[in-house]
Automatic annotation (TrEMBL):
Gene3D superfamilies: MetI-like. The chain crosses the membrane at residues 21-44, 119-139, 160-180, 192-211, 250-272, 292-313. The keyword DNA damage does not apply. It holds the Pfam family BPD_transp_1. This is Peptide/nickel transport system permease protein. The lineage of its organism: Bacteria, Bacillati, Actinomycetota, Actinomycetes, Micrococcales. It is a multi-pass membrane protein. Its main location: membrane.
Amino acid sequence: MSLRAPYGRRSTRIARSTARWVLGKVGGGLFVLWAVSTAIFFGIRMIPGDPAEAIMGGPGSQASAEALAQARADYGLDQPLYVQYFGQLWRLATGDLGTSYSLKIPVAEVLGELVPPTLVLAVLALLVAWALALVVAVLSTRSGALGSALASGLEIVSAAVPHFWLASVLIMLFATALGWLPPVSTNAPAGLVLPVATLALPLAGFLGQVMRDTLNAAHRSPFALSARARGESETGVLLRHSLRHAALPGIALSGWAFGSLLSGAVVVESIFARPGLGRSLLSAVTARDIPMVTGVALLSAAAYVVIMAFSDLAERLADPRMAAS
């Protein structure tokens, strides 16, 4: 019997597993986008008010009945609800996000300008949260029971702090009292510090709790004891063995964390007057700008699906047993 046969069967099994994983992610992603678009379509129509008024400039525009009727006809709002629904699904499937009611420009063009500021904010917050969680987890494992208890308390407090309260405290302390940082977010690095800290600190609390427990378990595991028996130093055990296992839950949570950061951006961008998806979504909901709300929600959902897929892929690469299973 050839020795290549087992390797061939293993490669075939991994290829099939990878294909199932890819198809599952694509199918799950399409289902999420359909569910989000459907929920937004019916949900925003439950808000009191006439979308035609948003097209004409809002309730204060005092548009005539003829003008409102013409706006409904132009945007298909006079059609039956199921016709509007399937028409919207078809437009979204063909990549047409429509035109913003309030801005009168294509939604895709608006999103092109709003995505970079929010993406920079969310990515920086995720990196800072990861760094803080790792540092606290490593320090707490090396400082005994007292250090672990202090770290646990710090993580619980930071995870429980709401974004709007933390943002207000940071503004009063670092902008009003000390004058070190601007209270309004700008494109300058100093203008990013407070918004990033507001998003990163609560998330670091969640990640730190998970990573610290896993790091403690990895430190007491047989492979860590075996490494110490071979003469490995504590730093070597930490860097070569324990951190990899401790990072797995954090990697798995990164997709959820990114979605949490996008939702937190609605509050943070409004408080710090920073342009971005979150602030524009709040304005669009207030103005009943249906295409804008749908575009922002779908983009956020798509970003969440992609990040979840990448975090799952990173988890499979960090733990080969998942790819082989």
